[in-house]
Amino acid sequence: MPRYCVIGAGAAGVSALQRLRALGHDVDCFEKTDRVGGHWHTDYDALHLITSRDMTTFEDFPMPDHYPHFPRRDQVRAYIESYAREHGLYDVIRFGTAVTSVEPVEGPADARPGSHGWRVRTSSGHDEVYDGVLVANGHLWDPKIPEIPGEFTGKTIHSGSYRNVSDLAGDRVLVVGAGNSGCDLAVDAAQHRIDADIVVRHGSWFQPKTYFGVPRQQVPFLAEFSPAEQDLINRLMARLSIGDWHAYPGLPQPEGATLAEGRAVVNDLLLYWIHHGRITVRPGIERFDGTTVHFTDGTSRDYDTVLWATGFNVRLPFLEDSLFPWTAGAPVRYAGGIVTETVEKLYFIGLIAPRGPQIPIYGMQAKLAAKMIELHEKAGPSGAPLARYLASLQEPETGIDVVRDGWLRQMADTERLLAAYELSSGDTAPSLQTV
After folding, report:
1. 183-214, pLDDT tens digit by residue?
2. Do residue 230 and residue 253 come from a single domain?
3. Sign of CA dihedral 426, 429, 434, 435
4. Number of domains making up the chain
5. How many CA atoms lie within 13 A of 142 on its CB side?
């Protein structure tokens, strides 16, 4: 009987694990820590969801009614843990076990890598061949820090290590990066009466969390409009609610003509504290000189702490990078970010972040991965060239932060292509030569 391996027990990993187990598959799951929930255990204390409680859920498992519209980090963590307990996943996850290598099993000379399974080795000495591997190790753990001329001699800390303002030195803080996390951290400092500056190199479309007292994704009438129309309506409502970018000193003009074309930040507290003088916007950094930071507009200022909110590198330390092509720091993927062109029976769950609620994404990807597993099993030991089939008919995905509407279209296209593949193959999958 085929066996499968899930790497990681964060929200993506438990979603994939539950989906396969519900379908009757034999599955091992390895988690290098001693807990379920991934980064929700270690994120900064001020973190809240930017998407609503009722839309950021596992399938058929709503968040508790007593949760607020935008739950805190610890509430989301408790919710993920309750999902794992409810489905008995704690009993099958191997905690304290890191996966050290995942290698395709060697097959005939003309076999595609992975088509005959994957050998998985772990830190506990476990060494086993699995028919397929679902990679859910997360992409928010290897800090990315840009190289900037000079040296900063004050304290530096990355958002991945920051917990609260007790981690900051002094009372002059420079936050570098103006995505959702960077804005959160600048606000956290400002609300504790710390003098905070934030580097904003690229203009973003700022969006409030609510309209009319309702989470923005749940405003009833929006569902009646197309994604492009919703984009326009959201920009118009934001303009009425918080104004244009030039109302906030230092903010650059948003890039792109629409939310989909540009960057979107769901945070109006940053704008509030800019107006109250607790946060000052700075341009890009030119160089460091001790505790002095020189900016690209010719200004400079001394700081006690530089807080990097510059994102994370995509890392798959148990896989050889040469197994599949990489572009812009991420594997080139297809099928809504699930597979790569060059290997079979390897599925990425969560290695993409379509804008909006994240937890439902993992279940949608797990469903498609389960369908591919079904087709592989029907094809027999030689496997089915599904990854190459999908790659030959779809546009590649190279990003992590992607527009949700386009991602949903590719997911729907993948479902259609898998249905067509199953219909055309009958009892025997097409040979490698026919794809």
Report:
1. 999 999 999 999 999 999 999 999 999 999 99
2. yes
3. positive
4. 2
5. 9
- The last residue of one of the domains, among 308, 342, 358, is 308
CA 37 – CA 433 distance, rounded (Å): 43
Please give the pLDDT value at position 72.
97
Is 124 in the same domain as 177? no
Residues 338-360: pLDDT tens digits? 999 999 999 999 999 999 999 99
Of the residues 254, 274, 308, the one at which a domain ends:
308
Using DSSP, state whether 432 is helix, strand or coil.
helix
**Domain enclosing residue 427, as ranges:** 3-141+312-434
> pLDDT for 258-304, tens place per residue?
999 999 999 999 999 999 999 999 999 999 999 999 999 999 999 99
Judge if 15 and 125 occupy the same domain.
yes
CATH number (domain holding residue 371): 3.50.50.60
Q: Look at residue 39 and give its three-state secondary structure.
A: helix
Q: How far apart are CA 361 and CA 349, in angstroms?
A: 9
| Paired tokens of 279 | 């946060």
Q: Rounded distance, CA 288 to CA 111, Å?
A: 53
Residue type for 154, please?
G
Judged by DSSP in three states, 361 sits in helix
What the block records as the tokens of 359 is: 């937890």
CA–CA separation, 27 and 89 (whole Å): 11
Task: Map tokens 């270690």 to a residue.
Answer: 42
Q: How far apart are CA 281 and CA 271, in angstroms?
A: 10
Q: Please indicate, yes or no, whether the overall pTM of this predicted structure exceeds 0.85.
A: yes
